[in-house]
Amino acid sequence: MIAALRGRRLEFGPGVTFLVGENGSGKSTLVEALAVAAGLNPEGGSRHFRFATRSTESVLGEALTVSRAPGRERSSFFLRAETYYNVASEIESRGIELEPYGGVSPHERSHGQSFLDLLTHRFRPQGLYLLDEPEAALSTQGQLAALARIQELTRAGSQFLIATHSPILTALPGARILQIDPDGGLHTVAYDDCLPVRTTRDFLADPTRTLRHLR
Q1: What's the domain of life for this entry (predicted)?
Q2: What CA–CA distance (Å, rounded) separates 57 from 197?
């Protein structure tokens, strides 16, 4: 996927862009690289978070140039599901004001509750938000709540780039879905044609048939 981006210009319009693809396709790598290029901490957080539990980010972020339309966002945040525990620890260790996180340390809430607290209290209108597989901590109801909040923030001028496997999140009306194919190709697909939706529908239509292929 990285090789396919060489010399290419990617434009992300206002609202929400989803990145979908199989594990290892590079969608999380791309979101991480864009976060780094935009000045955000590779493990997550805002521009004011500068910590590293273990530096594993790719060099792609150093090779990307991010340009914005006139008018800078009022808020920004990189939510990386696998390292949000580290962000929560940083919030506690630095004594950061907890009101933007629901009034309590994220460690005092379940993983899913802390994600929803972040969306509800920390994410604000006219912001730039990059999310890497936020559904990892969310129940079905949690994903629906996240979907409603993302739509609300989008209508208030926020921009989102979200790497996901969720057929629920990708159902957001008006969102653009970019799919990364096994050969590294990157193209826009309709909701009904994107990988998470097709795979889930095939399974739900006939679970027994799908499970036979796993034997």
Answers
A1: Bacteria
A2: 29
